[in-house]
Amino acid sequence: MINKKNIGSRVFWGISLLVLLLWLTAYPETTVKHSAKGFFIYSSQITGLLGFSLFAITFILAARIKWLEQYFGGLDKMYHTHHQMAKVAFFLLLLHPILLAGRWIPQDISKALWYFFPVHRRIAIDLGSWALWGLIILMLVTLAIKLPYDKWKLSHKFMGVVFIIGALHVFTLEELVFASPALFIYLLLLSIAAISAWIYKSFLLEYFIEKHRFQVANIDRLSEEVMEITLKSDKAVKFVPGQFYFFTFVAPDITRESHPYTVCSAQDQNRIKIMVKTLGDYTRDLYQKLDTGTTALLEGPYGQFDFTHEITNQVWIAGGVGIAPFLSWVRNLRDQSSEVNVDLYYCVDTEKEAVHLDELKVFEERSTKFKVHLICADREGFLSACEIPELAEKAVFICGPKAMREKLLRECKTKNIPKDKIHFEDFDFV
Known about the structure:
By secondary structure, this protein is of the alpha/beta class.
């Protein structure tokens, strides 16, 4: 039985691979043996078309289409599929001209090298060269250069321009695209969907998506790096404990960036809380400059991190401010009856970093089904999945830094814990 949360990734990978079957309707003779030159031509077509299809789908997955996230297990999982597809697309699109240039090796090395540049007599080939170099530059910016988030986000918008140039390259290759009506329709629909998604995400999202208007009611600086922000609104908002919103704070000294933060408060009609840790320039400005009365715009909620759909015995593992969704769960459980038995492992570097530990301890004293375990790296070292009793018989929820999460996931795999019993929240997609 296919889990609903896994359907999205499989469907979109399937859509991209469909281009290979449609390519065969245009060139069925490729199933027989060819010369070396034929191999370069046809393999370049396969890599080019598949890379183009994957590239197109990345725009759809990046458009933050809310109803789609349920088929991926959350917006973070949807963005990870986007990242995986983008990497494969880049590799295939890079391989595409390399295979074509390979026709001239070894007899004409200079011709092979010049093939990568827009110096051809056909506009279709020049468009492909421009798209290739645009993609290379933007991928280098994305992967190799550590830009501030707002600058990175701006550079990412140019991906749409590169895609449009690439689409023009594809549709001016009449001998390929128009060889099969099915292939032409597929590429046309995919291109329209990708360009529409790019325009929506880059230019129209701010105007079309609903945003809740809140005001900062209170700021509690819990430590030198972490603060808890209380926001209130005149209108009620609904969220499932464990979900997150994208927050934009409207203040003169704070950039209008949109960042995701998990709600850490109980469900309330018009008041929510979030925790923010200083991890960069933006969060440092928030910590130092945010003041009460500041307007906040909230987009969401997003996320599928929900303990209520799992078995009774559960393990919650939090790292640092990754305690946020678990705090929301605990604060909701205080007012509700639940049959869930929980062991919460709260992982921090030092005990003073364990914000709201007293609150968790109070809940532990009142509940016979909740136990908190404080794991301090400076005393006990890092938590290992092997140290958690009967873990294979429980549902596991993880929220924390990437290194901690990946370590625990590897250890859970060695203990043969089923993937569908392991749930994690991951904000590395931003």
